[in-house]
Amino acid sequence: MLSKKKSTPIYFLLPLIIAAAIFIIYPLYKVVELSFYDANFLNPNNRTFVGLENYKWLFNFKLFNPNISYFLSAFLRSLLWVGGSLLLKLVLGIFGAMIFNSDRLYGKKVYRSLAIIPWAIPWAMAAMMWAWTLNSQFGIVNSILLRLNIINSPISFLSTPTLAFITTFVVDAWVGLPFMIIMILSGLQSIPESYYEAAKIDGAGDFRIFFKITLPLLKPVILTVSLLSLVWTFNSFDIIWILTKGGPLSATETLPVAIYNISFLFQKFGGIGKASAMTIFQVGFVTIISLFYIKTLERGEF
Amino acid sequence: MKKGLVFVVLSMMLLLAVFAFSDETLRVLVPIGGGYTIEDQEAIAKEFERDNPGVNVEMEYVGWDELWNKIVTSVGVGAAPDVMYIGSRWIPALAEMGAIEPIDDLVTQEKYDMYWETVWDTVRYNEHIYAIVRAMSTKVFIYNKDLFKKHNLEVPKNWDELLHAAKTIHDPKNGVYGVAMAGQKFISTVTQFQHYLYANGGRILDEEGNVVINDSKAIRALDFYKELSSYAQPAIIEWRREDLIKLFETGKVGFYLDHVHNALAAMEKGVDVGLLKFPGGPDADLPYSTVIVTDSMAISAQSKNKELAAKFINYMTTLEKQAEWDLTLGFVPPMKREAELPEFQTWYWKPYIEVIQYGYPEAVGIKDWEAVQQVIVDAIHSVLLDVSEPKQALDNAARIISILQQ
Asked: Residue A265: pLDDT above 60?
């Protein structure tokens, strides 16, 4: 029996615990439960317990490509896609934050406010905007490149497999970049100026200062934002769906898109049970990566 | 005090009576886009409420893109609206999942005779009628007369002449394209390809339900489709058919396949428009072809207001209301007598109505359209991107569709 003093915090936490139970734990439980059933929307009242069959299906079911399972191909594609987007966000995020932190930049507040815009725009709208911006006929990007004679014919950003893959993660990076910049900027501003002054007195150049002072001191911020960004990017759906719907062919069919397809489009092969197994795999994978990140963060390693 | 109490009790009883007897609510799921607007739907709901006192129509709107998901999820959780506007291609899947029920009783002989026979084929599954058609479309080629005149081109009568016209007009360096084509992962890309497939006498399934999308007629159709695409605008995979009108309106496209309302839109923009019925291909028995696409209204199996839902559907599909709807939105009349109205006798309506007799429905017998659609788009993409030859792409599509049909 807890004393009154000790039990008091529980009362304050209770609303949060109840909300978490309703909005996080119960849905997650339902997904876990469904992953053991053969269930789909085509026959919602008739679900059958299949044990681990859905998890075996993940590695056995082949659809368009006879050499690799549908799930594994989407998963590997996701890893590459998330890696590309995250790397771009990190590199440009650090670079952008340093520019915004520079003493030589006038009107910093204005630029910082402008930089947040891509993040403030609803993702679906941002994707629509990019779809037209990159359109080979009317898009401004092709128009500029053609006028500057950099290209002779329009580039098909979204209709060739490799280019569509790169374009979608670049657009995703564009949307997530402001968050990265703002967070890294706050990290940069917390580095004492005296460190830089001391390094300069010792004759250190800009590159040495960056790699020996700036980057090491930014480690905690970089780890935190990259962890958050990793989770968000792994779940990114809107941008791909609006730009390419996972195509052309399956070039941009990442795991969230594949989960959607298995839930709603390929119900005969898949259904909500198998889609739940895919989801659990993704949640498990992202959780393991997150734990690894958190451990690294706690140990103060990079 | 006592009087006050009596007044309060009476008022409450009156209020209860109003709630209990006045509003019978009918939930109607309506897609928005593709010609359907919220304003039009709200006007219809108000009219029905006016003519049926005590009825409250609740319109629930969703984009066409999300309509299928909305239906399956609402059915899955037991909260399906009473009346659902659906793409008729979904009827087999919805019937199999028990989401909709046959409505043969609703269709009197008189009502049946009002429509073209092919229209009923789009809403029939396992010998039962599951919905009443609300909108129908056929498509013909819309061509730019000025570009044809400029190059001394006759109106094409067969596929060779079609290809020749596209090739002659095509001048990409000056931003002029022989033909405009769609290729995005979307229903309209499949419908576009189906025009070529049907025009050459091909089908997805034959009359016995066998998958024949990889027979010689289909392979030839896809081969031609690819060849024609060489004279289309760049990156056709980025384009939806719904957006091609923007390109055609610039006056720099020879021809493309579309609805009558877009032919009118192009005319308004100053393009000298001609219309050309889709000519039959080299293997075809018929001189022309089209794909009969319909949207229809079905009653949810979960509805507790089936009688009212039936009344609503009947109200919407009288000859008068149907004609008003089709003329407002530019859809092809699904009713024979409607097609005889003077408004449909103009030169631009005629080809769309004439091709009905050569048309074949979009999805007869296809059990899981959404999946089949993905498979066909994938086959088209693999050919357009030179990943597969038409035969290989269609063999693969046929293999997957066969599994889906089991």
From this structure: yes
Q: What is the mean pLDDT of residues A202-215?
A: 89
A7 falls within a domain? no
- Pair (B284, B153) in one structural domain: yes
B214-221 contacts: CB < 8 A, separation 24 or more?
B214/B391, B214/B394, B214/B395, B214/B397, B214/B398, B216/B283, B217/B281, B217/B283, B217/B284, B218/B394, B219/B390, B219/B391, B219/B394, B220/B281, B220/B282, B220/B283, B221/B193, B221/B196, B221/B197, B221/B281
The DSSP call for residue B332 is P
Structure tokens at A23: 């909005």
Measured in angstroms, the CA of A35 and the nearest CA of chain B are apart by 17
Instruction: Count residue pairs from A and B with Cβ separation < 8 A.
Output: 94
**Is the predicted pLDDT of residue B19 greater than 50, yes or no?**
no
> Could you tell me the pLDDT band of residue B124, with boundaries at 50, 70 and 90?
very high
Q: Write the ipTM.
A: 0.78
Contact check, Cβ <8 Å, B237/A247: yes
pLDDT bucket at A242, cuts 50 / 70 / 90: very high
Query: Mean of the per-residue pLDDT values for chain A?
Result: 89
Inform me whether the pLDDT recorded for B27 exceeds 90: yes
Query: Domain range holding B393?
Result: 140-289+368-404
Q: What is the CATH number of the domain that holds B88?
A: 3.40.190.10
**Count of CB atoms situated within 10 Å of the CB of B342:** 6
Contact by Cβ (8 Å): B248, B128: no
How many degrees, rounded to 5, is the angle at CA A274 between CA A269 and CA A279? 135
Q: In this complex, which of B238, B246, B368 lies closest to A156 when CB atoms are compared? A: B238
Q: Cβ separation of A248 and B76 shorter than 8 Å? A: no
Query: Do the Cβ atoms of A153 and B234 come within 8 Å?
Result: yes
Tokens of B115: 């429509």
CB atoms B93 and A42 under 8 Å: yes
Q: What is the mean pLDDT of residues B264-275?
A: 96
List chain B residues with CB under 8 Å of A45: 98
The CATH number assigned to the domain holding A154 equals 1.10.3720.10
The CA distances from residue A216 to A91, A177, A179, B288, in Å, are: 15, 21, 20, 72
pLDDT band at B41 (very low <50, low <70, confident <90, very high): confident
Q: Is the pLDDT of residue B5 over 70?
A: no
What confidence score (pLDDT) does residue A121 get? 86
CA distances to A24, A115, A187, B152, B257 from A178, rounded to whole Å, are: 28, 6, 14, 56, 43
Token pair 């007799």 is found at B357
